[in-house]
């Protein structure tokens, strides 16, 4: 099968990068995969090193005057290779593929669109893309599927394929190794409950809500907690908020990590508290696969990961007070966290595996080609 993957993100790319890199890593061995993404993207550089795809630099642009050149470039790519499937991953690359496909002579490849974010689906753009350049839609969570069914994409077949993680790569570390990793941090971790997140530091991730929640705890509980984050450096405004809360000594920034596993292994529980954009969160599933119970906000598909009180906790969105109440129950019962972590790991192996994710995606392609 000849597959063209497109994505418009420059730089890190977040979950889009994880999604496509996972598919390419597993499908590139048996199929002919081409990746059309910006040269400055992490996806371009990482998959180029892996040598599992043919990478073509395409600089997608929202500026109308750049569109003809981008579309012409895609026309040349698509005409030269005659792909069986084109899989688009964002509105900008989807629009460009739509315009390029209109210019192709002969058979036109079917287009699969994955809805990665929780942005509202409205306006002329989605209407045109749904009618002119979408043969199948993939929703990454049940919440997204419901919203797609109430959008112009309802005219298309919609499959829910929840994001999967490599549970062999993301697995619990031995307890002694976790302790050694904690001690290696340049902050005091002795007897502290470490609450961490590898979901990133963007504002919509609302990691500061965890810091605020900890700050609301009674002093005897608050001093037991260390909040650990990784990703891009916190902004000046975010740093100022930490200082304002008097939490500078209880927040550890680990940096922008190429491998988050040693970081995740060192903490006791994870969190993802997004209130915008997020759908189901690769980061949440990675932490659970590594045996960490996770606290999530009741937003979009995040609660779909968690059985409250069993392998994590669900709190109301934008509620530091609710987070504090939840932590006040967790801290005195820290001994239960390892059992909850085992439940998180068991769920990951049973439901979050990459084999299921890749297999269900491939089934969408096969269904289209058999039609």
From TrEMBL:
SUPFAM superfamilies according to UniProt: UDP-Glycosyltransferase/glycogen phosphorylase
InterPro entries to which the protein is assigned, alphabetical: Glyco_trans_4-like_N
Alphabetical UniProt keywords: Transferase
Pfam family for this entry, one: Glyco_transf_4
Gene3D superfamilies on file: Glycogen Phosphorylase B
A GO molecular function held by the record: glycosyltransferase activity
Domain Glycosyltransferase subfamily 4-like N-terminal: 14-169
Coiled coil: none
Transmembrane segments: none
Domain of life: Bacteria
Record protein name field: Glycosyltransferase family 4 protein
Source organism (scientific name): Achromobacter pestifer
């Amino acid at each position: 099968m000849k597959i063209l993957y497109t994505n418009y993100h420059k730089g890190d790319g977040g979950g889009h990068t994880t999604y496509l890199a996972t598919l390419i890593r597993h499908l590139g061995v048996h199929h002919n995969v081409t990746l059309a993404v910006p040269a400055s993207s992490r996806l371009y550089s990482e998959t180029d090193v892996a040598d599992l795809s043919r990478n073509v630099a395409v600089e997608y642009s929202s500026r109308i005057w750049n569109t003809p050149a981008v579309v012409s470039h895609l026309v040349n790519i698509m005409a030269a290779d005659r792909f069986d499937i084109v899989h688009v991953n964002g509105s900008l690359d989807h629009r460009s593929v739509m315009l390029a496909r209109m210019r192709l002579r002969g058979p036109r490849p079917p287009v699969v669109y994955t809805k990665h974010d929780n942005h509202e689906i409205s306006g002329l753009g989605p209407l045109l893309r749904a009618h002119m350049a979408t043969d199948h839609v993939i929703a990454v969570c049940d919440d997204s599927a419901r919203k797609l069914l109430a959008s112009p994409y309802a005219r298309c077949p919609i499959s829910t394929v929840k994001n999967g993680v490599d549970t062999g790569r993301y697995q619990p570390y031995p307890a002694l190794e976790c302790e050694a990793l904690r001690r290696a941090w340049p902050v005091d971790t002795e007897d502290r409950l470490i609450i961490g997140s590898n979901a990133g530091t963007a504002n919509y991730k609302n990691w500061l809500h965890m810091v605020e929640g900890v700050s609301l705890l009674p002093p005897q509980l608050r001093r037991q907690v260390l909040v650990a984050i990784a990703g891009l450096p916190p902004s000046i405004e975010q740093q100022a908020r930490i200082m304002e809360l008097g939490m500078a000594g209880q927040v550890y920034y680990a940096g922008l990590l190429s491998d988050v596993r040693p970081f995740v292994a060192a903490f006791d529980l994870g969190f993802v508290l997004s209130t915008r954009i997020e759908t189901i969160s690769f980061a949440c599933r990675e932490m659970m696969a590594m045996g960490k119970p996770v606290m999530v906000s009741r937003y979009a598909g995040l609660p779909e990961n968690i059985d409250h009180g069993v392998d994590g906790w669900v709190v109301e969105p934008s509620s530091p007070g609710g987070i504090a109440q939840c932590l006040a129950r967790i801290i005195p019962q820290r001994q239960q966290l390892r059992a909850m972590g085992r439940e998180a790991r068991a769920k990951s192996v049973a439901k979050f595996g990459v084999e299921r994710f890749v297999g269900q995606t491939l089934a969408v392609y096969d269904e289209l080609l058999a039609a």
